[in-house]
Design a protein that fits this description.
7 helices; disordered N terminus; Ribose5P_isomerase_typA_subgr; seven-stranded mixed sheet; alpha/beta; Rossmann fold; ribose-5-phosphate isomerase activity; isomerase; Alpha-Beta Plaits
């Protein structure tokens, strides 16, 4: 596992400093790429969204003309989509085709001017870029708190390279260690049955299984017309690979939010700069 730290001292790294300038100067998502600042901005002064923009800008450097891209879902992935759209608009990129991982990303990419397709028409993708909810030291991920885990996993598994972009708050020592949700997508039919089975599966790990609700208090429905049962662990999952296999073996479980061994590179933006970590 290799990690590369990009310094943020303006006298030693104009490239990285430029990323921070652009992120801080971009008052709206659509302006991330185009604006710059004439004064040094210390990374410590940036907000979490600014740090996400920095990581997104760095990730888009992997994109080349004529690529077929997997477009992720979530705040950071939204910044990636906006950056790609800006580069297409300026003529710096051409011939890009995007495969979105959710209806939200479809709408965002369409408004950004990115030509779109599906896995049916493009079963192999050159590159996928997406965020993550948690990242462990081996670049295993928890994803799906935005509700798009099934389509994200399908698109990213079909990609020749999968680059993950996060800010440093997403780093954990073990998956599930943040205490936030590990999503499991289940069919609506007898969802309580599967909720109870998931609860029982992790009874020795002090896990609580809860049906996800929307803002109106109704069951949250995914783009695939399924429900989500969120698993809340009080400590990191002891054996994520075994947990993934056991969840996948349950009838009625469509997909889970453990993305194990899928990411090729990780871009982390934090108060100390930008790091690129590879397998």
């Amino acid at each position: 596992m290799a990690a590369i730290r990009l310094p943020v001292n303006p006298s030693t790294s104009s490239t990285t400093t430029s990323l921070f300038h652009r992120a801080a100067a971009g008052g709206t998502v659509g302006r991330i790429h185009c604006l710059s600042s004439s004064y040094p901005i210390p990374p410590s002064a940036l907000s979490q969204d600014d740090l996400r923009k920095v990581a997104a800008i760095k990730a888009v450097e992997y994109v080349k003309s004529d690529m077929v891209l997997g477009l992720g879902t979530g705040v950071t992935a939204g910044f990636v989509v906006a950056e790609i759209g800006a580069l297409l608009s300026s003529g710096e990129l051409r011939g890009i085709v995007g495969v979105p991982t959710s209806k939200r990303t479809f709408d965002l990419a369409k408004s950004a001017g990115i030509p779109l397709s599906t896995l049916d028409k493009h079963p192999r993708l050159d590159l996928a870029i997406d965020g993550a909810d948690e990242v462990d030291p081996d670049i295993n991920l928890v994803k799906g708190r935005g509700g798009a885990l099934l389509r994200e996993k399908m698109v990213e598994a079909a990609s020749d390279k999968f680059v993950v972009v996060v800010d440093e708050t997403k780093l954990v020592l073990g998956l599930g260690g943040s205490g936030l949700a590990v999503p499991v997508e289940v069919v609506q039919f007898c969802w309580k049955y599967n909720q109870k089975r998931l609860q029982e599966l992790f009874k020795h790990e002090e896990c609580e299984a809860k049906l996800r609700l929307d803002a109106e208090g109704n069951p949250y429905v995914t783009d695939n017309s399924n429900y989500i049962v969120d698993l809340y662990f009080k400590a990191p999952i002891k054996d994520p690979r075994a947990a993934a296999e056991e969840m996948s073996a349950l009838e009625g479980v469509v997909e889970h939010g453990l993305f194990l061994g899928m990411a090729d590179e990780l871009i982390i933006s934090g108060k100390d700069g930008v790091r690129v970590k590879t397998k």
